[in-house]
ABC-type polar amino acid transport system (Blastochloris viridis), 253 residues
Amino acid sequence: MVPKIETTRHAIAIAIEQLDKWFGTFHVLRGVDLTVKRGEKIVICGPSGSGKSTLIRCINRLEAFERGRIIVDGIELTDDVKRVDEIRREVGMVFQQFNLFPHLTVLENCTLAPIWVRQMPRREAEEVARHYLERVRIPEQAGKYPGQLSGGQQQRVAIARALCMNPRIMLFDEPTSALDPEMVKEVLDTMVQLALDGMTMVVVSHEMGFAREVADRVVFMDVGQIVEAAPPREFFDAPRHDRAKAFLAQVLR
Ligand SMILES: Nc1ncnc2c1ncn2[C@@H]1O[C@H](COP(=O)(O)OP(=O)(O)OP(=O)(O)O)[C@@H](O)[C@H]1O
Ligand SMILES: [Mg+2]
C-alpha cells in the first residue's frame, strides 16, 4: 500500500520560537521565530552565510541549538534520542548534493531506509519506491546506478527516496543550485507537483520563479535573523527592508 500524504494531524507543522544558536563564539541564529502551518510552503532566501541551512538543519536535529524551542507536528525537539527519531520520521530532507549511495541502484537507494529503519518487507518497499519514482517521472531508471544518471535525475531520485519514508514535512536546501541550468526545471516541476499534492514544504532556494508560483510566504534571512516574511507578491513587489531590496536587486538582475 502506498501511503498518502497526511494533512490533518496538527494544524501547526513546525513552530520555531526564539531560536538562538552559536558555532563556538559565532552567533549564527538570533532569535528566530517561524511558524509553518500544515500544508504551507515556505521559501527561505537571503545572502550566503545568513544562516538558512543552519536553520533548516536545526529542524531535524542535524544541528543542535542552544536557546529557544522547536516543535514539529506537536513533538518538542529535545536531546532525547527518541524524540529526535520521532521527528526525523516526520521530516524528509533533500540537499544540494544529492547524497545518493553510488554503489546502490536507484531502487536500492529508495528501499534501503524503509527496509532497514522501518522494517518494511522488501516487496512492499519496492512497490512504494516504484510509486515515487513514477511520481518524479523516472520509473525507467530504477535499475541504474546514480553515476549513470544526470544531475537532475539524481536529484529526483533523492526526492523519491525521501518520500519513500512517508514524511509529513519536506525540507529542501538549495535542491537545484548544483544543477546545470537545463536540469533545474525538471526538479522544480517535481517540487511544484509535491506542493500541489499538499505537502508541507520548507525550501531554501533562490529560484524566485518557484517562490512566486508555489510559496505561501517568502522568508528573507540576513545575519542570522528573519528580517522579512511575506506572501510572494508582497515580498517581490514591495519589499520593506533595505537588505531585502538589495538582495532582490541582485538575484533578479
Ligand atoms: N559547522 C560549522 N562551524 C562553524 N561555522 C559554521 C558551521 N556551519 C556554518 N557555519 C557558519 O555559519 C554561518 C551560516 O551558515 P549557513 O550554512 O547556515 O548559511 P547559508 O545561509 O545557508 O549560506 P549559503 O547561502 O552560502 O548556503 C556562516 O557564516 C558559516 O560560515
Ligand atoms: Mg546554505
About this structure: The domain at 12-98+171-252 is CATH 3.40.50.300 (Rossmann fold). The chain has a mean pLDDT of 94. Residues 23, 26, 28, 46, 48-54 surround adenosine-5'-triphosphate (ligand 1) (CB under 6 Å). The beta strands are 12-23, 26-37, 41-45, 67-72, 75-76, 91-94, 169-173, 200-204, 217-222, 225-230.
